[in-house]
Amino acid sequence: MSRVLDGKVALVTGGSRGIGAAVALRLAEDGADVVFTYQHRADQAAEVVERIKAAGRRGLAVQADNVDPDGLTAVVDRVAEEFGRLDILVNNAGAFIVAPLEDLGLEEFDYTMAVNVRGPFVAAKAAVRHMTEGGRIISIGSNMAEHVPFPGFAAYSTSKTALVGLTKGLGRELGSRGITVNIVNPGPTDTDANPADGPTAETIKGFTALGRYAEPADIAAAVAFLAGEQGRYVTGASINVDGGFSI
């Protein structure tokens, strides 16, 4: 039985857990072979690879740090060489540093920008060398790019807002080559980093119109739409999957 992404190859940065793992698995379920990067937990990465293979697709985990531009470029080139092509890039790896302005050092600010903005730029620049018409670049942003209800998010919200600008710029530049570029902005999502039963969860739920957290699969569904043929006429777009948090 044919699937919408049969024959496609995807690279997901930060794909060993949470939203990244859900995206990697959804793309595999839709027919893509999936490579993903991870930073620390080799055991979690191995589990995701096995689940990709259980879906009948090729899977590979590569240890890499989004802050290392040479290493990230090498991963992109490795995917194209070993899998023969690269059709979909999902920039998911991210840094999440929350601190009051007085306690936010320049090192933390620069690190956040390096991981959340420079990394996607480097990966996209490397990926387009291998992409043909129909290529997809999708970044995972944040609802904090539009609405910041809590203090301490200056670095994080700045980086995710910059990622929106990068998406629009690349969307305009790559449109003539038939490559679409979009960003999905999750809201509160039930992951180990932000559990739906955590100490601040009830307050956070109150900021959404739906009154609940998303599941990682909800974010992955939006990515899958943009990665597939039905998303072919969407580019430069910011899509909020945040339960109405940004209303």
UniProtKB/TrEMBL annotation:
<protein>
    <submittedName>
        <fullName>3-oxoacyl-[acyl-carrier protein] reductase</fullName>
        <ecNumber>1.1.1.100</ecNumber>
    </submittedName>
</protein>
<dbReference type="Pfam" id="PF13561">
    <property type="entry name" value="adh_short_C2"/>
</dbReference>
<dbReference type="GO" id="GO:0004316">
    <property type="term" value="F:3-oxoacyl-[acyl-carrier-protein] reductase (NADPH) activity"/>
</dbReference>
<keyword id="KW-0560">Oxidoreductase</keyword>
<dbReference type="InterPro" id="IPR020904">
    <property type="entry name" value="Sc_DH/Rdtase_CS"/>
</dbReference>
<feature type="domain" description="Ketoreductase">
    <location>
        <begin position="8"/>
        <end position="189"/>
    </location>
</feature>
<dbReference type="InterPro" id="IPR036291">
    <property type="entry name" value="NAD(P)-bd_dom_sf"/>
</dbReference>
<dbReference type="InterPro" id="IPR002347">
    <property type="entry name" value="SDR_fam"/>
</dbReference>
<comment type="similarity">
    <text>Belongs to the short-chain dehydrogenases/reductases (SDR) family.</text>
</comment>
<dbReference type="InterPro" id="IPR057326">
    <property type="entry name" value="KR_dom"/>
</dbReference>
